[in-house]
Write a structure and sequence with these properties.
Elements: H1 2-60, H2 73-90, H3 105-110, H4 113-137, H5 142-168, H6 176-197, H7 201-209, H8 211-217, H9 233-245, H10 265-275, H11 278-309
Length: about 325
Amino acid sequence: MKTKLFITALAAATLGIGFTIRANIQCAQSQQGLKALALPCDEVRGSIAQWEQRLRVAQSTSSDARPESKASPASQTASTAARTLVASGNDTRDKAPAPARRFSAKAIVANDPEKMAAHCRELQGSLDLDYGGMFRALGMSSEQIERFKNLRIEREQLIMDRIGVAEMQGLDRNREAYQALAREHDEMFAKKEAEFFGPLEERYREHLRTQFLRSEVQRLASIEVYPEIPATWAQVERVTEILDRHSQRAPKQSWQLSTWLSVNWDAAAPQLNETLSAGQVVRLRNFAAFDIAMAKVMRQTDRLTAQFKGQPLPR
């Protein structure tokens, strides 16, 4: 009996010692972990302090103190016009102190010269894909292509600068004053494009009107989407022309999602089969099927909305 009690007491003592050792080890590990975290925490605090300082500077800085970048005269016009909106009483900022505003991605890029420069470089690289067919169709020279690219980049800078200034000033981009400024900029660049293209302007405008359709057809030219035999630029332009001709798009109107519903695929099939391979035609129909389904959903939504409001149903 005494032996059993002795063994039990010894086991309890051993267990107690084990728990004590384990607790000491865990305590030591925790202290080491806290020491290891001390330096990263100091770095994080320093980073937070830097960001808080930058935020205070951004909030207190007007568009006059905005970091200078290689902006075009048109971009400077956007800044001036946006500041005019503030002075004219269209400023929607709260008079009482308000929490810091959250800026859109475009506003952040527009107010960072390095990000803006990178954005313009990416845009310039994408223009060959978007307008390569037009360059060839219009027979544009290398010099004309570069001038056109510069014009598109200048327009993008203007738009981004307008958005960046408006958000920094707390302007409501849905207000009529801002929309009027946007229309003014569009008209200004429409005149510049008209001067640039001259007698070829209408062909350029027509290219823009079918750009929505062309962007879908261009998916056939993507190696990622169609790695076996990607379509050439000539095929893309030809398919765009075929589908547009067999649609009911009104003259001077841009191709829209709903335009897919008017395409006569049976009439377009012979020409599509002559231009594309059988596999490419199937892939094209699959691309279009998604847009057609979306167009039907949107049309039904419009019908139900009009019915709910008691307005005449759209055709």
